């Protein structure tokens, strides 16, 4: 996290209404935090974080004093222990500010269970919005932003990742997902294998940080541009939506010939149409032309 001069040093703590405050924090540049987020961290009765050291460092950068407050660690491994205590404190009239390591809590970060439990208990939950790698990536991608889907992280096992990509790459929206910097080249190669090699994509790494870089082009071009060993830093992938697909009869027949070995022509047509992003009726017509056997 880049250093920044204190912005709010010495400000008085204002009283916050009881509730859970989900605070977005910078994904890189420390000055990307909002004034409201600083006010919330300064004023909350109780502070909670995915990593207490990260929050303490952020507060030190911006001159936010602890004033005797503890920072509670809250993550997937201790939710049963610390979650009920924070909810009880909110029920008793306290304000709790929770932040993940970077970006917006609950967006591929811990905190979902805490927010859900607070809502289920009838407690107030407030968003303190700010930085998000998902939206930062979409902003600099140059791809359509009127309709998009955030799909999180793809599975690690190769076969599951291929199936995941085949499924989500066919949605009628710009697709956004996170990926490991070591696996991103392999993931782009899998997209090429599913027929998405000619679609536009943007791969952003270290967004808002000193070594920010964005690869843009077709999936095949960006895959070639990324070194075999992968890249470094946090990665977000933005894939353009599928266009109106034109069926390649030879490829459709090949896929159908494999599919009909284990299913009916109707079911095979449905499966191949979904895999290739083609109209089911057109694929079924091709299936009907296949020889028996």
TrEMBL record:
<keyword id="KW-0489">Methyltransferase</keyword>
<comment type="similarity">
    <text>Belongs to the methyltransferase superfamily. RsmI family.</text>
</comment>
<protein>
    <recommendedName>
        <fullName>Ribosomal RNA small subunit methyltransferase I</fullName>
        <ecNumber>2.1.1.198</ecNumber>
    </recommendedName>
</protein>
<dbReference type="InterPro" id="IPR000878">
    <property type="entry name" value="4pyrrol_Mease"/>
</dbReference>
<keyword id="KW-0949">S-adenosyl-L-methionine</keyword>
<comment type="function">
    <text>Catalyzes the 2'-O-methylation of the ribose of cytidine 1402 (C1402) in 16S rRNA.</text>
</comment>
<dbReference type="GO" id="GO:0032259">
    <property type="term" value="P:methylation"/>
</dbReference>
<feature type="domain" description="Tetrapyrrole methylase">
    <location>
        <begin position="20"/>
        <end position="222"/>
    </location>
</feature>
<dbReference type="InterPro" id="IPR008189">
    <property type="entry name" value="rRNA_ssu_MeTfrase_I"/>
</dbReference>
<dbReference type="Pfam" id="PF00590">
    <property type="entry name" value="TP_methylase"/>
</dbReference>
<dbReference type="InterPro" id="IPR014776">
    <property type="entry name" value="4pyrrole_Mease_sub2"/>
</dbReference>
<feature type="domain" description="RsmI HTH">
    <location>
        <begin position="247"/>
        <end position="290"/>
    </location>
</feature>
<dbReference type="GO" id="GO:0008168">
    <property type="term" value="F:methyltransferase activity"/>
</dbReference>
<dbReference type="InterPro" id="IPR018063">
    <property type="entry name" value="SAM_MeTrfase_RsmI_CS"/>
</dbReference>
<dbReference type="InterPro" id="IPR035996">
    <property type="entry name" value="4pyrrol_Methylase_sf"/>
</dbReference>
<keyword id="KW-0808">Transferase</keyword>
<keyword id="KW-0963">Cytoplasm</keyword>
<keyword id="KW-0698">rRNA processing</keyword>
<dbReference type="Pfam" id="PF23016">
    <property type="entry name" value="RsmI_C"/>
</dbReference>
<dbReference type="InterPro" id="IPR053910">
    <property type="entry name" value="RsmI_HTH"/>
</dbReference>
<dbReference type="InterPro" id="IPR014777">
    <property type="entry name" value="4pyrrole_Mease_sub1"/>
</dbReference>
């Amino acid at each position: 996290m880049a250093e920044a001069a204190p912005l709010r040093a010495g400000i008085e703590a204002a009283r916050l209404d009881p509730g859970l405050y989900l605070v977005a924090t910078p994904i890189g540049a420390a000055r990307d935090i909002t004034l409201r987020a600083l006010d919330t961290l300064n004023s909350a009765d109780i502070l909670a974080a995915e990593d207490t050291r990260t929050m303490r460092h952020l507060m030190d950068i911006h001159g936010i004093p602890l004033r005797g407050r503890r920072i509670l660690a809250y993550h997937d491994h201790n939710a049963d222990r610390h979650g009920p205590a924070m909810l009880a404190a909110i029920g008793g009239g306290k304000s709790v500010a929770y932040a993940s390591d970077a970006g917006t809590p609950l967006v591929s970060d811990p905190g979902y269970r805490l927010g859900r439990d607070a809502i289920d208990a009838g407690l107030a939950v407030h968003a303190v919005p700010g930085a998000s790698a998902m939206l930062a990536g979409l902003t600099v991608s140059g791809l359509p932003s009127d309709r998009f889907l955030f799909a999180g992280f793809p599975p690690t096992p190769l076969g599951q990742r291929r199936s995941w990509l085949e499924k989500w790459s066919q949605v009628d929206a710009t697709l956004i997902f996170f990926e490991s910097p070591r696996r991103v080249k392999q993931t782009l190669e899998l997209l090429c294998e599913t027929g998405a090699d000619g679609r536009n994509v943007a791969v952003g790494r270290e967004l808002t940080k000193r070594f920010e870089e964005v690869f843009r082009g077709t999936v095949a071009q960006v895959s070639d541009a990324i070194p075999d060993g992968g890249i470094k830093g946090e990665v977000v992938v933005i894939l353009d939506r599928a266009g109106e697909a034109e069926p390649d009869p030879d490829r459709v027949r090949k896929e159908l010939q494999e599919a009909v070995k284990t299913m009916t022509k109707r079911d095979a047509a449905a499966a191949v149409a979904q895999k290739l992003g083609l109209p089911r009726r057109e694929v079924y017509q091709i299936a009907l032309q296949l020889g028996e056997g």
